[in-house]
Design a protein that fits this description.
Layout lengths: L4 H7 L5 H12 L6 E5 L12 E2 L9 E2 L3 E4 L13 E4 L4 E4 L11 E4 L3 E5 L2 E4 L9 E2 L10 E3 L7 H9 L4 E5 L3 E6 L4 E2 L11 E2 L2 H11 L3 E4 L7 H14 L2 E5 L10 H8 L1 E5 L3 E2 L5 E5 L2 E6 L3 H20 L8 E6 L3 E2 L5 E11 L2 E6 L7 H6 L2 E5 L5 E2 L4 E6 L8 H7 L1
Parallel strand pairs: 13-16, 13-17, 14-15, 17-21, 19-24, 22-25
Antiparallel strand pairs: 1-12, 2-11, 3-10, 4-6, 4-7, 5-9, 8-9, 18-20, 20-21, 22-28, 23-27, 24-25, 24-26, 26-28
Length: 416
């Protein structure tokens, strides 16, 4: 098929980032989430489809919080250092261990360290016991029918323990949206093929996106690289948009002779935005095919990461039933001047370190292909569109990379 390169370039825009996301989400409409029931022990990071209510009390019964003896509190009245009291087993007390039931008529526990064994079946105490002393009441932690988790809650390890304690063994969760990840390019090879196919480029972006999809609540399905063949890519894309909830097409979004993604998506569906005023990441395609979100993701790793975080992550959060997590931000002094273009919102990777009583941010390599700049980065200094940059020594806001920052938690809280 003949490709009109000039016409394709004219279709490219420089849409501001926030406007692009708004237009994209509005074009998608409402996503109907499916639900499924899973075992609580396998529910980590799933999203509760509705509120979860306890089926039983926790603890199930009044129980001892100490090793010692369970006593009838009224039988201990008058005991003191100068007036020790003798108690008889079964009549005034029974031996008990931590977690054992405290049954009537016993209503308090005296710890082992505060009793003196006189002889078998007899103890001496030197202080009175208050009612429910060292006793954990039934339902003290969780009361039957109490709400343990709200709906749309992402399940954490501690939530699993609480649900099990409340008698919940199965939970209804939203199905994870399925995401097809399609790397394209005849030059792309799998990592283990690099030595046998000279001149090939190792395909790694799809694996990064696969992990990002998992982190954001989706179920990724990564495919092997698809060669640069218009009909082949079109057929492949038409198939996956029928079978998956979201599609990420890697590379082919530019204006080169073998960049087919834009033309294919336009044939199959609707291109909402092509080209966003961000750097790295400008040649992104935001589209819908079969009412599914389809993103044309740039081939450079930093661009791919930023496109995912800015456009795929919010949509995926909505599809997963999650609230979008707010980014952590710290304030730091810039060590070097940053010059930026007025045309783009630029995401400058920075390393953040403590210098005396403040944090300093050092700019890292700015190329879209500099994957190691992401590995080394603690966050991004975002230079907004229409700004020419920031002078050295200026205080800047650094948006911390989710899961990437090595900053100490105290630094994050102190300099936010």
């Amino acid at each position: 098929m003949a490709i009109d390169i000039e016409a394709r370039i004219l279709c490219s825009t420089n849409t501001p980032v926030d406007e692009a996301l708004t237009r994209f989400t509005e074009a998608l409409g409402t996503y109907i989430r499916g639900i499924e029931t899973v075992e609580v022990i396998h529910s980590l990071d799933r999203v509760a489809a509705g509120a979860v209510f306890a089926r039983r009390n926790s603890p199930l019964y009044d129980s001892a919080t100490m090793d010692g003896v369970a006593v009838i509190s009224s039988h201990t009245h008058g005991a003191g250092e100068s007036s020790p009291l003798i108690l008889l087993q079964d009549e005034d007390y029974v031996p008990i261990e931590t977690g054992d039931p405290v049954k009537p008529p016993f209503d308090a526990v005296i710890m082992a360290e505060d009793i003196q064994q006189k002889e078998y079946g007899t103890i001496i105490i030197r202080s009175m016991a208050d009612v429910w002393q060292n006793v954990r009441s039934a339902g003290e932690d969780i009361v039957q029918r109490e709400m343990i988790l709200p709906g749309s809650h992402k399940i954490r390890p501690i939530d699993i323990g609480a649900m099990l304690s409340g008698g919940i063994t199965h939970i209804t969760v939203f199905e994870r949206p399925s995401v097809a990840i399609i790397p394209t390019g005849s030059e792309m090879v799998e990592p283990d093929e690099a030595m046998t196919k000279p001149g090939g480029i190792i395909e790694s972006n799809s694996r990064m996106l696969e992990a990002l999809v998992t982190q954001h609540g989706g179920l990724p399905f990564r495919f092997a690289p698809v060669p640069d063949d218009y009909s082949g890519i079109k057929e492949f894309l038409a198939d996956v948009t029928n079978r998956f909830d979201m599609v990420l097409v890697i590379a082919g979004a530019g204006a080169g002779r073998d960049d087919f993604t834009f033309d294919i998506i336009r044939e199959l569906g609707e291109v909402v935005v092509r080209g966003v005023a961000m750097k790295p990441g400008k040649p992104v395609i935001l589209a819908t095919v079969n009412e599914k979100p389809v993103l044309g993701v740039p081939g450079y790793p930093v661009s791919a990461y930023l496109v995912f975080e800015n456009f795929a992550a919010p949509v995926l959060a909505s599809m997963s039933g999650l609230s979008q997590t707010e980014s952590l931000i710290v304030k730091a002094r810039l060590t070097k001047r940053i010059v930026s273009s007025l045309k783009y919102r630029e995401y400058v990777r920075v390393k953040v370190e403590r210098a005396g009583e403040q944090l300093v941010a050092s700019p890292l390599a700015r190329g879209a292909g500099a994957a190691m700049s992401l590995v080394r980065a603690d966050g991004f200094c975002i230079i907004e569109q229409d700004s020419e940059g920031v002078e050295a020594g200026s205080e800047v806001r650094v948006v911390l990379c989710r899961g990437l920052s090595d900053l100490d938690q105290n630094d994050i809280m102190s300099y936010a």
